[in-house]
Input
Amino acid sequence: MTSGIRRGRARWLGVLSVGVAVVLAAPNAAVAADNLPPLQPVAADLTTGGKVCAAGDDRPYVRAAPRVTAVLNDPVEDDRPAEGNFVTAEFEAWWTDADGVEQRRSYHSLGGVSSGSAAEWQLPSGLPPWTVISWRVRADDGDAVSPWSAADASGSGCEFMYDNVSPEKPTVTSAEYPEEVHWSDGVGVYGTFRFDSPSDDVVSYTYSFGGGPLRTVQADGLGGGAEIRYMPTSAGTGFLQVQADDRAGRLSPPTTYYFFVNSGRSPVAQWALSDPAGSKSAAPTAGPDARAGAGVAFGGPVPQGTPLTSTATLDGTGHGFLSPGTQVVDTGKTFAVGGWVRPAALDHDMTLASQDAGTAPGFTLGARTGDGEPVWSFGIGGTRVSGGRPETGEWAHVLGLYDAETGLTRLYVNGQEAGTATEAAPSTVTGDFQIGRARGKAGYRDRWQGEIGDVRTYDRVVVPAEAADLGRRTPQERGHWALETAPQGLSPELHGGQALKFAGGASAYNYADQPCDPEADPDCEPSLLPYPLVGFGHLDLDGTSGYAATAGPVVDTGDSFTVAAVVNLADEEPAHPMTVLSQGGEHGDAFKVRYVPSTQTFELVMSHADAPDADETVAVHTGEPDWAGGRESHLAVVHDRGLDRITLYVNGLATADAAFRSAWTSTGGLQVGRGRTADGWGEYLHGSVDEVQAFSGALSATSISQLGFGGEPCLTC
Output
């Protein structure tokens, strides 16, 4: 457009020059001389199929006729900005065919592009493969053309070669995980996989394990192979798919490589610490015996929901330790160490396990007090990963991991990763393995006070799923009341446990027991009888004095627990708050779940102590407020002591949760339909209750969704 305006302006001045030639001839000549030719396109602004312009050994390879581009520039002139100048592009490509005859193709763009913009040419199909093809470009502003582009000072154009052959399938080999061999090495152990291809133009390999994300590794030079490291995280059949990539970006057909992964290797050393009382050493499940100091007492308590039968109690003195008197782990290589612990005090740093390295520990795993709250911690080579919160009297599974392959140190607490994985440089000095103490310059220190059980060490990576299994406490059912019947006012627990005793305005409704015989009573209509909530019967409560209760506590409220029930409120607008479930002590409820009419919501209330004016943590249901008056709801209360969290589930959904660190063990029985108030018992429920279930341990969301239907949930899901 700019050059067109310039030519038009010259013609207009030429017309005027007929009448006043002397005056206008000189200015007209000056305008024509002002035009500057476009600049020579430079190699840095040229691309071949998206690849930078190059020639010789650096020329790119393409898998189809490429699109070539060039940024064209026209200099500023007549005080007009450069982007106002439009130029067209003239491309040219050439090569020598198989008969030695030079072939040329050219293209002149029809439309112009503004200065500083890219022009392009899609080269025609039919280009000869495996032939050096050159191309160049120049710019035309309508009055002048630029010099031809050049890739280098010699004036050579851009070059490329058309590759029409894909590479051959690669081969895959692995010493640790050979193809189709049952079974190989195992979970948590790295293996090397070697890729090779018969093709001599391979530059990289694209691969994926088990259909996962695609990754790329560069070949060892043109046509070379490549190696990767891989660690299986689950046992069973694994497969690897690999394709070779050549210079042109062509992919080979895929190679599928099957291998079969064994379960993770057993611990190199393990002490259950369940030895008989009075034992002088701990017998190993694997590894050497561990001598016990005089401050170690066997036969201690165990965390519920674990396979442990007993633990060792260490008194925190210089005699409270166990040691095999030898090295157990190689701290310069991958290793993991962990165990169950219950601290009796947290007023000083305490060690679950360590290993000597001269006058210092090569690693330490345990609890550290520091300047703030206590934390679980794993230290190795000057690096420390900390996370989680130890509590006196609370069980926890703690595991530290050093992965020499990645250089990262990790900490797991109760099966969940805690803190942030951190790079470490471990000490290679090795000494004796220690349980319950750590080496210092002046002797042993940081002695454990409390229980320790099932200490294990591994010479491989413990993967997250294994860490979760090691730290899992499987919930145990503590009570299930179907509430179908209540002979003599007692609703039996299905497995012979404590019965729920009915009191006040509490009664059992059973559909099958209703006197309705249409033959004897024409006005009787069975379909009009109320249906039970679940099964054939439920508990009816009058809202003024009715409730049901066990004689003693059903769950340990100081530990993790789950309690659930199906409830149907009788009134659209209840006159007062109503408690569905509770369990407490002399002055208050350790927990209660209640309905609050003013907000039309359920809420979970956890008190901080058995005292009349104790603080409370409240988790309020956040769903739709439409639970009253004829709609049944399934409620579940979950206290996870390991995570210090309470959760209220309504109809299978976790609708409210909160942090909670003030659990206490209640002594009273489980209450259905009433709770403690400032004036004593109150908040009586008006409605129906069914399928009351109680568990030690925190049920998962999957298990919660299986409650309330008359069956038993999967406790390991």
About this structure: The helical segments are 2-17, 21-34, 464-470, 701-704. Residues 1-32 have pLDDT under 50 and may be disordered. DSSP finds four helices and 53 strands in the chain.
